[in-house]
Amino acid sequence: MRRAHLLGLGFMTPALFIIVFLFLAPVVLTMMFSFTNMSSGTGISSGGAYEVTERTIRLLKDQGFPETTADRLAEDTYKIDAAGLAAVQADFGKAFAQEIEAELSGKSFAGRRDLERELKRLKERPRSTRDLKKAADLFKRSILNTRFETEQAFLTSVDELDLGLGETETAELTRTAYTGWVWTTENYRLIASLPSTLRAAGNTLIYVSFTLAFSIGFGLFLAVTTFYLPSGVATTFRTIWFLPRILPPVIYVMMWKWMAWDTGFLSSFLAHFGVPPRNWMLHSDINAWVVVVLINGFVGASLGMILFSSAIKAIPETMLHASEVDGANRLQQIRYIIMPQLRWPILFTTAYQTLSLLTSFDYIYLSTDGGPGKATEVWALYTFHTALNNYGGVLQYGLGAALAMVLVVIGIAAALIYLRLFNFNDLVAKPRIEQ
Amino acid sequence: MRPNFRIWPILVLLSILSLPLVLMYFYLVVDTVTDTTAGSLLPDRFTLEHWKFLFEKPETGRASIWPVTANTFLFASSTSLIVVMISLTAGYALSRLNMPFRKFFLGGILTLHAFPTVTLIIAIFLMLQMSGLYNTLIGVILVKTALELPLGIWIMKGFYDTVPWEIEMAGITDGASRFTVWWKLVLPQVQPGIAALALFSFLEAWKEFILPQVLAPSGASQVLATYLQNTIMDDRKPDFNLFKSIGLFYALPVILIYVVFNRKLMNIYGGGTKG
């Protein structure tokens, strides 16, 4: 290998290192996670335990497991076995234990009352009822909310309950009671069938199309109008419209909240005209959408304005002078001279913003957080909520990863199309120094 | 261009459309030093009370602003430093050095730039938890650096592309190695680019909210973005005067950098590389 090659690769090494660890590894992991049912419930380390909880029983019933059997899992069972007898012998003496063994050995009872009734008939029983209850409790066998580290221990305890499970039922119970994560394609099936993913997709479509239309349209308007203003005034307006882009999102959205909340400026202002105060950000779906589109649209228009302004500045002034001599008015000038020059910047901005809007969610997260209800929850925010910010319950890493994979696929496809569209080969001029 | 037409209609239209933003900026500044009677639109008393958070011990359960500011500064400047250092070498390699897979690297970096935070953050969240970097500033710095890197490399490559080949050719002819040429001749040529990229990455990290929120939510590694957002979310009764004072304090470096280095930054923002 030539020395220049080595230098080049050496120069690339730090970047490649970071890219491999913080881009490629996460993407590969996301892909793997998307085929698991990993959640904050299952944990992320491999291997789990077996545990029957209220939730397990609910799940079992949903899966068509026999209801009475499922309910029995939750109930205490009293079983006269060697371990129980040994405990009784230690606490209440040998005579009582031996009598129980002789009379009741091997029997099991569904509730404590049944066992107590039997115990009361015995001669060697303790005299107080409290002691009798205590003795009965020594035979209590329950698997509810008990963790079993191995499948073997779990099955042994299940057998003790004498549920009379068949082979398929045992398998189903074991699978449902497993607390660790397993490989599954369930997430992708869910994405295809859940109504909430469909709504998130619809919301994303609304969000991207409206915000894009607003930011391109308004960006163009700003660029063209400020072009015709004296430079001092133009700079003032450009600064006003550029600030949303460089201000931190938290502050920018806070100013919108001050404007829109029910104690905010808009409500106070409209109160003078008899409009009752309300939260203009979250009062209705329409309110929320207007705010979301404007918050993002202003930032998008900033970018558009700057790109279009510099493209307009690049137009030779003589062209504009000539058109004026020929009697063109402003609108004709804009239509026939400026707009044709902006074709590429507009295409670029559209392409670029489509992709970044599709995957961005910070401004929505900070302002409406998808509300009211889920009216403004776009795909990216839905992913974020599912995997990392679910106030209601468990964080579903697996499902979230699958949702994210959809964005990854769209992102890569779009990037490849753009590389073609914007003549990638022109960007990679060959090095001229060969060594 | 001579204004041989009436500009006031445009001026009026633009002013009306800009009014909401102007109002927001105006009240952002004014509300920090005044009080307004409830229901009234105009402030009526001067006060410095809203800036108390800078000096006084905060209410229980809330951190003091200074360690948080130090965290933010550390976060932003480390991110900026690492992004610049790595982009400097990688950008040069992509712009000038002959190496295998060059085209593939370039395409890859452009594709990576299209990778949104949300697709990576789930896996990164779990990776940081496994490696023990969860809830540390180092974790957030690493992740932010990685996310800014594709753009940084691309921008640096752009600046290297504008350096005339003749400079390097002359250096090589005089017997210098490629490394020396880069270090002694090329680097001084791209100094404006280095400054622009450093400022840009600093600002991007300074503004970042989602990453610290998800990857380092606890108090000790809080940054100003999460501090302000938590203050806003905490209050049952919103005290916008306080929010705005904290907000303005947080925004000051951004505004300062924008005012002082306007032209340098426009190199990047005008390049249309982020949005």
Number of helices of chain B: 12
Helix percentage of chain B: 55-70%
State the CATH architecture of the largest domain in chain A: Orthogonal Bundle
Strand order of the largest sheet of chain A: 2-1-3
**Mean pLDDT over the residues of chain B:** 84
Largest sheet of chain B: 2 strands, antiparallel
What separation lies between the terminal Cα atoms of chain B?
A: 31 Å
> Low-confidence segments of chain A, ≥5 residues, pLDDT <50?
none
Membrane topology (chain A): Multi-pass membrane protein
Subcellular location (chain A): Cell membrane
Pfam family, one (chain A): BPD_transp_1
Keywords (chain A): Cell membrane, Membrane, Transmembrane, Transmembrane helix, Transport
Describe this structure in words.
The complex is a heterodimer of chains A (435) and B (275). Chain A is an all-alpha fold. Chain A has 2 domains: 54-177, no CATH class; 194-395, MetI-like fold, CATH 1.10.3720.10. Chain A has helices at 3-33, 54-62, 67-74, 82-92, 94-104, 112-120, 129-137, 151-160, 167-177, 186-193, 195-227, 231-246, 249-260, 265-271, 285-313, 317-325, 330-341, 343-359, 362-367, 379-388, 397-421, 424-427; strands at residues 77-79, 108-109, 140-141. Chain A has a 3-stranded antiparallel β-sheet. The longest helix of chain A has 33 residues, at 195-227. Chain B has 275 residues and is mainly α. Chain B has one domain: MetI-like fold, CATH 1.10.3720.10. Helices cover 69% and strands 1% of the residues of chain B. Chain B has 12 helices and 2 strands; from the N terminus they run H-E-E-H-H-H-H-H-H-H-H-H-H-H. Chain B has helices at residues 8-30, 65-96, 102-113, 117-131, 137-161, 165-173, 178-189, 191-207, 210-215, 224-234, 240-260, 262-269; strands spanning 34-35, 45-46. In chain B, helix 5 packs antiparallel against helix 8 (191-207). The longest helix of chain B has 32 residues, at 65-96. Chain B is globular.
